[in-house]
Amino acid sequence: MLLHVVKSKIHRVRVTSANLNYIGSITIDEDLMDAANIIEGEKIQVVNNNNGERLETYVIPGPRGSGEITLNGAAARKVAPGDVLILITYALMDADEAKNFKPALVFPDEQTNLLR
User: Which of 22, 25, 66, 90 is catalytic?
Assistant: First the structure.
């Protein structure tokens, strides 16, 4: 049996931009991606603390050190710049692996989205 387990979480980042006229995805500062062990194209759950919206999309890298968190395409309608998000990825693991797995938890500066 395989279990869905939290692989990584970026906790409380602010939306910097919403770009409706884009194919789709979320753009995340590549420094945050590295810290959370998230790769380009990975599926991600986006939880909006401001309005309760939850959605899934895929990740594209943004410029390092920029603090960029941009929702693109249709997802742009689910956020507003300044909204606080929690970003979560999951992995499939067998029960034994899941018991010992430690997710990457990232708590960036809430105002700048930069690593502390």
Answer: 25
Written in H, E and C, the secondary structure of 63-82 is CCCCCCEEEEHHHHHHCCCC
Catalytic entry in 8, 22, 58, 66 = 58
Q: What is the distance between the alpha carbons of residues 110 and 98, in angstroms, rounded to a whole number? A: 30
d(CA 24, CA 43): 12
> Could you read off the pLDDT of 80-114 as tens digits, one per residue?
999 999 999 999 999 999 999 999 999 999 999 99
Is residue 58 flagged as an active site residue?
Answer: yes
Q: Which fold has domain 2-106?
A: Barwin-like endoglucanases (2.40.40)
What is the domain partition of the chain in residue ranges? 2-106
Please state whether the predicted TM-score (pTM) of the whole model is above 0.85.
yes
